[in-house]
Structure formats: C-alpha cells, structure tokens
C-alpha cells in the first residue's frame, strides 16, 4: 500500500502539480538528483516539473511517483481518507466529481472516486485529443486493466504488439507488461477503462 499523503508531507489539494511533487519528494527526504537516479528521469526535467515549467507524460510521472511509493490516484487525491472510507465512499458521482489524473487538456484520465486506498478497482474516463500520448517510454504496474473505446480510435501497444482499436473495440491485459496508449489520429478518442487493483 502507498504511504499516505497527509499534512506531514505538506501536500495541499489546491497546489499545482510541481509544488505537490516537490512537497512529496521533500517529505521522502530525497534530492532532485537522487529521485532522478531512481526514476531514470533527468534531474533538470524533474526540476522543470517542480517549477511548473514542463508537464510530464503519464509514463514519466508514473516512474517518478513509483520511486516515491505513491500511485497517480493517491497523488492527485492529495488528502488521506477516513479509515473506513470504503464504507463511506459515495455511490453516485457527477461529472464534476471525477478526479483528473493527467493534464486534462491533451490527455485526460478522470477517475471515479477520490480515495481508492483499499479499493479493489479504479474506473477511468479517458480522453485522448489528437496527438495525445502516455509517453514514448511504455510503463508497467502490478494490475490488470481493460477498457472499451467508446469514441474515435486508439493506438495501443502492449509488450511490443501495436494495435489500432476502433470505436466499440476493447482490450484486457496484464498491466505488468509494458504498455502505451496514443492517439495519432485527427479525431478525439474516448475510452472507459478499469484497473484492478488500483495501482496506476
């Protein structure tokens, strides 16, 4: 389980991504250079992210957060849920209640529910604008995931196998395999997906 994001880490849900990443890194007592060594991301790039001068791809941010022991879901949820949050978790969500895990512009991953610690799965509403890409370097995590393309087309690479999925097509794979999603087409792509357990 990921360490909690709490007042001790200095993370505030209203902070920009860079300030939140800096607070998390400092709470783990890591220098930028050490985090760069652990994650395989250059230290100037991490510095630019922390100063909100650059926006990381999903795969780059995932590699950085993995080294900090935090999932994307936990990072963007920011505050610690109550101990029995699974029992208090809402049943219904308005579109405005979904938690954005990406930049929300070129790429949007909107998560159902804010706190998934202890949950068995995560559900995402994904939107890929033309040119959107999860990152040139595929990423992996301990889970299974599946999804359905509900609009447009998606190029999905899993363990080196590249496929173009059309509207209505679906996928389901072991997330430990390196994977990448991108939209090299000229229309928006929308996917509804699930990841179990929520390690993304």
Overview of the molecule:
The strands form two sheets. A six-stranded antiparallel sheet has the order 1-2-3-9-4-7. The chain is built from six helices and nine strands. The relative contact order is 0.15. It is α+β, with helices and mostly antiparallel strands. It has two domains: 7-77, 434 Repressor (Amino-terminal Domain), CATH 1.10.260.40; 86-196, Jelly Rolls. Helices cover 24% and strands 24% of the residues. The longest helix is centred in the N-terminal third of the chain and has 11 residues, at 17-27. The protein has helices at residues 17-27, 32-39, 43-50, 58-67, 72-77, 85-88; strands spanning 99-100, 107-111, 122-128, 144-151, 154-158, 161-165, 170-174, 179-182, 189-196.
Count of separate DSSP helical elements: 6
Main beta sheet, described? 6 strands, antiparallel
Give the terminus-to-terminus CA distance.
Answer: 12 Å
Q: Give me the strand/helix succession.
A: HHHHHHEEEEEEEEE
Total beta strands: 9
CATH class of the largest domain: Mainly Beta
- Looking at CATH, the homologous superfamily of the largest domain is Jelly Rolls
Q: Examine the coordinates and then state which fold CATH places here, giving the name of the CATH topology of the largest domain.
A: Jelly Rolls
Low-confidence stretches: 1-14
Overall mean pLDDT score? 86
Strand order of the largest sheet: 1-2-3-9-4-7
Task: Using the CA coordinates, give the radius of gyration.
Answer: 16 Å
